[in-house]
Design a protein that fits this description.
The protein is mainly α. It is built from 5 helices and 3 strands. It has helices at about 25-40, 45-55, 60-65, 70-85, 105-120; strands spanning about 60, 90-95, 95-100.
């Protein structure tokens, strides 16, 4: 025996569910979380941050290039992105650039990601 279900037609644009639904992340928070995750979403950038965090002082760009599995132009590209995001900075000494982590900025990104993920998982 087959049970029949009455289908109620509704006008286009009307909601089928009762109650309000709203995202827990507003647009600005979602954009910020997306940008934070995006800057960290590449293995070379994560490796750069790891190398810089391992060596609390300043790391020469030549040492970064030697330690990473990509060529110099790619290293430079990822360093530029991390600098633009404010997560690292550099200091020139003669012909060499020495890179270091901006710890306050990295802590802020970590906090925003943790807060955003907590909202999404609650």
């Amino acid at each position: 025996m087959t049970e029949t279900v009455d289908i109620v037609e509704r006008q286009r644009g009307t909601r089928c569910c009762e109650g309000e639904i709203e995202p827990r992340l507003d647009t600005a928070a979602a954009n910020q979380l997306s940008a934070d995750l995006h800057i960290l979403a590449h293995p070379v950038r994560l490796q750069i941050l790891d190398l810089l965090l391992q060596h609390a002082g300043k790391v020469c760009v030549c040492d970064l290039e030697a330690a990473l599995p990509v060529k110099q132009p790619t290293v430079s590209h990822h360093l530029r992105l991390l600098r633009a995001a404010g997560l690292i900075d550099s200091e020139r000494q003669g012909p060499w650039a020495y890179y270091f982590v901006q710890h306050d900025a990295l802590l802020q990104v970590q906090a925003r990601i943790a807060q955003g993920m907590a909202l999404l998982s609650s």
